[in-house]
């Protein structure tokens, strides 16, 4: 299943698929969903990276309007990925956490 979702995130023919998949994973925002997103974050090409960045920015805006508890859950799920066996996941989680701290410093 992970391979299929990862291929949707980095679909070479249709970035609308990338957008929808990324938004769905970020909305779910649990460990398995963010694991897939962070892996794609570090392995995508420039075009896909822009789409992933846009999806993340949208989710962070939504979190900025939400509760502290929602933001804390999102941060906690990303922090758990900092010790993942996959270096792409760890690196992606680290980059996204750094971005999150700048965007939502609470």
What does this structure look like?
It is a single chain. The chain is mainly alpha-helical. It has one domain. Helix content is 80%, strand content 0%. Helix 3 runs antiparallel to helix 4. The protein is globular, with a radius of gyration of 13 Å. The model has no long low-confidence stretch (mean pLDDT 92).
Q: What's the arrangement of secondary structure elements?
A:
Blueprint: H1 2-9, H2 15-28, H3 31-43, H4 46-65, H5 68-80, H6 87-103
Helix pairs in contact: 1-3, 2-3, 2-4, 3-4, 3-6
Give the helix level as a range of percent. over 70%
- The number of helices is 6
Radius of gyration over all CA atoms, rounded: 13 Å
Question: SSE order in H/E notation?
Answer: HHHHHH
Return residue spans where pLDDT drops below 50 for at least 5 consecutive residues.
none
Give the end-to-end Cα distance, rounded to a whole number of Å: 35 Å
Outline the biggest β-sheet.
Answer: none
Number of structurally distinct domains: 1
Give the total of beta strands: 0
Please report which band the strand proportion falls in: under 5%, 5-15%, 15-25%, 25-35%, 35-45% or over 45%: under 5%
Mean pLDDT over the full residue set: 92
Return the structural class: mainly alpha
Identify the overall geometry: globular
Organism: Krasilnikovia cinnamomea
Protein name: HEAT repeat protein
Write a concise keyword list for the protein shown above.
single chain; 106 residues; mainly alpha; globular; HEAT repeat protein
Summarize the structure.
The chain is an all-alpha fold and 106 residues long. It is built from six helices and no strands.
């Amino acid at each position: 299943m992970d391979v299929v979702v990862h291929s949707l995130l980095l679909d070479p023919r249709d970035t609308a698929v990338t957008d929808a998949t990324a938004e769905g994973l970020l909305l779910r925002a649990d460990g398995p969903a963010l694991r897939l997103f962070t892996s794609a974050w570090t392995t995508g090409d420039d075009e896909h990276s822009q789409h992933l960045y846009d999806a993340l920015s949208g989710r962070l805006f939504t979190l900025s309007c939400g509760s502290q508890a929602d933001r804390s859950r999102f941060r906690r799920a990303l922090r758990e990925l900092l010790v993942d066996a996959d270096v792409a996941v760890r690196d992606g989680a680290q980059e996204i956490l750094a971005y999150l701290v700048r965007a939502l410093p609470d």
